[in-house]
Write a structure and sequence with these properties.
single chain, 165 residues, mainly beta, 5-stranded antiparallel β-sheet, 1 helix, 16 strands, 60% strand
């Protein structure tokens, strides 16, 4: 791989990112991502502009999936009055294992820090199940995974287009 970024998760944007491969083995989460955005402040970005990375391999070493849940939602009327609320639904251990098998082909919309200490990181990964239609994509469900790991390695061979905002 031509580019390698270690422990620089905040130097990426996941807003368009799709998971094309997801594996959770003993002490490692391995993902292949499409449409990952490399921010201007990433150590591997010499263009100093946001650009899409080509297909990207991510290895979270020393990883352990701690928990997961389906995100709840709130429904409001046109006057901004809360009509109903669905709370977050935590996964059981069995549901969590089943969920990990369904991450491929879905969107990774964020990786947010929960706790960081020297040599140890805990992040919350947001994953959306979406359905493509004539007008774009419709989000069906969104989920969170809390993962702790020792090292995050992102590797890719080339840059694609600059991000147009």
């Amino acid at each position: 791989m031509a580019f390698k970024s270690v422990n620089e998760i905040s130097a990426f944007s996941f807003e368009d990112c799709m998971i094309t491969k997801f594996e959770y083995k003993e002490k490692e989460v391995y993902m292949e991502l499409e449409a990952l955005i490399v921010k201007a402040n990433n150590s591997q970005n010499t263009n100093y502009t946001e650009s899409y990375a080509g297909p990207t391999q991510v290895r979270l070493q020393g990883a352990k999936v701690i928990s997961g849940y389906q995100e709840g939602s709130k429904y409001y009327d046109a006057n901004d009055v809360l009509l109903s609320e669905i709370p977050d639904r935590p996964f059981s251990k069995e549901e969590l294992q089943d969920f990990l098998k369904t991450c491929e082909g879905n969107y990774l919309y964020c990786m947010e820090p929960v706790k960081e200490a020297e040599g140890s990181y805990e992040y919350s990964m947001g994953i959306e199940y979406a359905e493509d239609n004539d007008y774009g994509s419709t989000v069906l469900d969104s989920f969170r995974l809390n993962i702790c790991f020792e090292k995050a390695i992102f590797e890719w061979d080339r840059y694609m287009n600059r991000v147009q905002r």
